[in-house]
Amino acid sequence: MTRALILLVPVLCLGAAELRLLTPEARVGEMVEWELVDAGPAALDVTANPTLNIGTGSAAVSRPAFAYQPWLMADIETNGEHEFAVQGGLSLRIRHSFRMAGDHSLVLTDASGAELLRDTITVAANPDSHGVITVSPHNPRLLAYSDGTPYMPIGCNLAWGTRPDRLATVTRYLDRLAAAGGNHIRLWCASWCGSVEGDQADNYRLEQAWLLDQILDAARARHISVMLVLDNHYDLTHGKAFPYGATGQERAETFINPILSPQYQRRVRYLLARYGANDAIMAWELFNEIDIALRDNLGDFDHSELGTAWAEAAASFINAHDPDHRLTTISLSHSVWTRLFAADAIDLVQVHNYVPTYGVMSPFHHDGVALLEDALMPYGDLGKPIAASEVGHHGTEQVNPGNELDADGALLRHQAWAGLLLGGYGSGMNWWWDVYIDRNDLWAAYTPMAKIVSTINWRDPSLQPLRPNVGSSLRIIGWRSRDQALLWPQSRQD
User: Fold this and answer.
1) CA distances (Å), origin 379, targets 201, 224, 376, 443
2) Element containing residue 490 per DSSP (H, E)
3) If DSSP codes are grouped into helix, strand and coil, which group holds residue 406?
């Protein structure tokens, strides 16, 4: 009788490549990381690197290797400023999050498809894992984990960290938000914090890539999900780490083009390879306020068709190359582009709206709830999850009379609750996380919401947002069904 020989070590087919597991244990829902040894040079273009094919059949997933370099935030200046200090050379790494327990096959191939090695990995069960965040199977207006567990995002924008230590600054804000019961932030890949793009095409800043790793890991350790903004109007307009042309017009025409730039496609592939397996990421936001980028660089015209066509192309590209199928979204300033958010490739609707600066008259002068009601109204019939993802008093970091006169956070609380009770999938998200929320120690504003939303059965398929009543000085907003309700009666004169 012949017995089969089961190999528990890699079978090397070409060269002497080694797949070295860096994670102590592989568990469902926890990101696993490997380092490739003797597998060739590390290319920034992930299509030139080896690919790890995980599993077989319809459940198979391919994860390309990405170039990695270790850094740290070091005190390298006499005035105590921290900046990046390199800690080692380039290497190749691969990341993946397993969704099922058991044995999984691993096949490493080079860029030509030739097999380099074959192995297996045993993944342990994890009862604390609920999968990725997606549209709720119980209610298309809400979010849930892939196993159906409801997820209600509560938090604010925490778009970047600042010097002297960007990482320490972000981590401190995350600690304060988590302690208050918050579980969600909106984070930018900004030229000054977290954007891998450099000043030269395809020359990624691996120190910024490392920083983004650390921020995402810090968020995940605190059970805080992240809406990750991949590009923004400021960097495009000013040409900050945005090598798509010499002028704003050229950058806008090259980048915001339905025929996606190959350079953009390469960067997206790198981002997906490096960060795509990290379950801290709730959603990919393609672009922050794309209407401003188009208006400021292509003229004050209606650019909704161009912006929508680009967003559909970019979202479709990400969806095709993201094995975890995370949510995709985009944001506008004050424009109303219904067709953009109706597109099948866009999963989440966002609105940005600020209470006008004190002294500036408007139809909803200082009524932050009415302002959000008006902004959300055009998208209510789409039936998609919607968020008031940038709200607050209008102004700048240096000059904001509204924030100065509202040090107790009345508008912060009103718009946080209104973002949810006007039919949103989570809290309204204040923009001023640093110069307002933190400076005035207003993090506890999120604690009551975190406690109260946990008492509602968000699996209830008949739960729907109220249409705000008219003709009365008492405004009533909220969610209700046959069996439960979460309502806020509020004076319109408040």
Assistant:
1) 37, 27, 6, 29
2) strand 485-491
3) coil
